[in-house]
Fold this sequence. Notes:
The chain has 316 residues and is α+β, with helices and mostly antiparallel strands. The protein is built from nine helices and twelve strands. Bound molecules: (3R)-3-hydroxy-3-methyl-5-(phosphonooxy)pentanoic acid. This is mevalonate kinase. Its main location: cytoplasm.
Amino acid sequence: SNLSVGAAHGKIILIGEHAVVYNKPAIAIPFTEVGAKAIIQEGGNDESGCRLNCKYFCGPFENAPEPLSGITACVHETLSYLQVEKPNITIRIESSIPSGRGLGSSAAIAYAVVKGLFRYYGHQANEDEILRLAQVAEIFAHGNPSGIDVVAVGSEGPIRFQKGKGAVPLPIGKTLHLVIADTGRFGDTRTAVESIRTLYEQDRLTTQRSLDLIEDFTYHCEQAMAKGDVKLVGCCLNLAQEELSALGVSDEGIDRLVDVARDSGALGAKLTGGGRGGCILALAADEQDALQLSISLKEAGATETYISRIGMSQHH
Ligand code: PMV
């Protein structure tokens, strides 16, 4: 019978997270070591509706638990866009992206599902339509998402993203060796974004200053990446981490891994994504240093580490 697959990879925000919610630019890179797949198949549903088959749930859409409401809303929106009235399909979701770690899990699943549905119904995929529909799931997951995640999980290379302006591919002067280390704790992006909003309303001047500084560091980071000035990239990452700390989205576990990374020779280290749990990223001078950093971070308690060379990456 009829079968279609949609796929997306993970993403890493190099710099600019949170500020991007306030219309500042941010830099994201594809994280191809992990990914999500949506397999769309005909049948499996008596009600001529949709069936979902994933790690946490298997059954008709109507019975899907609350945390999956983003994905079901996204499917409904996509089917209505494609003018499908009686779908009678089963959507199987497979993902190797850990959820709640700032690595783009929810966005990649949404992107893969929309792409899979477009393929299944023979609709010519238009990137802007896919992004808009995948964003429906992100709004459920995050409340007020900037949109960077859905763009980054479908992007082939590093991008600068800005709300309302979309993504611009970024030139890279020299390979960046990144180590991603998982604190092992769930990072609630929605809460983190809301906490900065509260801060913004309580103390606009100080908050705005931090957001403006992150914008500056992001700008300088982009220039340094283009020139291949890896040390300067590292500096920008460290400076951004200072501001993320000031904004209250870092925490003890993140700070500890960031310190270990810097003490072990990282050129820069910071949280990545929403923060308050989730992952840190560390910039290494070369492949060898990246391996060493990865070992040090594991010893310091990171539950998982990954090495990523801009687009290409390896699992450790
Ligand atoms: O989904 P996460 O945890 O990688 O965070 C996305 C980046 C934020 O800037 C914190 C939120 C957003 O919507 O851009």
